[in-house]
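Subject: for your reference before the review

Hello V.,

The reviewers asked for a structural picture of the protein, and I figured it would be easier to keep everything in one thread rather than splitting it across files. Below is the amino acid sequence we used in the manuscript, unchanged from the supplementary table.
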Amino acid sequence: MELKEKISIDEFDGKRFQIRLVEPTENEKAVLTHYLHNIHNGVSKHYKKDALKVLKEYVTYKTDEENLPLVTEDALQKLLFEVENVPFPTPDNYTFKFIDLFAGIGGFRLAMQSLGGKCVFTSEWDKEAKKTYRANFGEVPFGDITKEQVKNYIPNHFDVLCAGFPCQAFSIAGKRGGFDDTRGTLFFDVAEIIKRKKPKAIFLENVKGLRSHDKGKTLETILNVLRNDLGYYVPEPQIINAKNFGVPQNRERIYIVGFRKDLKITKFEYPKPSKKKVTFAKVKEKKVVPTRYYLSTRYLQTLHNHKNRHASKGNGFGFEIIPDNGISNAVVCGGMGRERNLVIDNRITDFTPETKIKGVVNREGVRKMTPREWARLQGFPDKYVIPVADASAYKQFGNSVAVPAIKATANKILETIGIEKI
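And here is what came back from the structure prediction:
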């Protein structure tokens, strides 16, 4: 990356300043955007020291009328003000604070903000996901949460810890199954943060397979840490299916919630499934999609051959076409996440390939779902910005949480700890 040495003169807070147009590091952007996001509340003091160092490096205040060359570029201005000019800003009258760990592209944040929450810390290591997060929330997530430097930026006195933590395999056979047994896994870092910060409530999400992983010992260890080592009331985790909460996707995930024991909470009810059932037609693109989403004849034949080979062996593995009146399979990373969610769309009029394909565009109308359709399947509103290439977008939405299911469960958590929602 080429560093710019130009200087810009502008006004901010009644003072003249000059801007060195040099790109801050990712960590500096995280510190500065977190500071600016919290500039109107007490949390800002947690980031102030390091944020002011960044400002001092890139912004020099001027007390006199120096004749420096004026540059119209607004590199730092954009960084300073973009936090409030985003699709999903913090609610004006927020009623609780939360942190967003393993944030991905902000599925948890969308749900929590819609209930009146203020995010005071977020972390995500994937660079492409950070781009999407920043485009929608105006904030650059901190990086690797396993690093002590990153943990030190987490403020005190927030209400809810949210984490869609990855499930790393770890063996606990023959061991006590406590706090020490989770060392070396990402769950340990979540547990360490809970131990230090003691939030009122925790909300964890993971794949359904966590329940059966290592014959149930992994989940047993996690619950033992939360209940016995950390002192939280943790009701039995529940498998929640996104299709029961207003999106046409068969997506089962395990939700784990917990409450600090001094709150004396002894009962929690997960949300009941919604009676409203929706189908793929609700999220299907209203206009003709670009030709690049349609499969080539050769690729489609390969999928048929692959499915037939498995069928001959008694297996059900293979591609699947989702009808407009049906619901999709879970959207996941990897090719099969798309191949098991193909659709028929005969509105195509231009069969000229947009990319280098083997064969010609199929005439059966078989196409992949678009990233926007995947976003809708996960409950992301259409104003959610997708600033990355399709390959990254599929990965990001496949890794995300189903926002409506998260929101329904978060609503129950807030009711349980007595937090008013807006």
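For the response letter, the relevant points are probably these. The radius of gyration is 24 Å. Residues 297-312 form the longest helix (16 residues).

Happy to draft the paragraph if you're swamped.

O.
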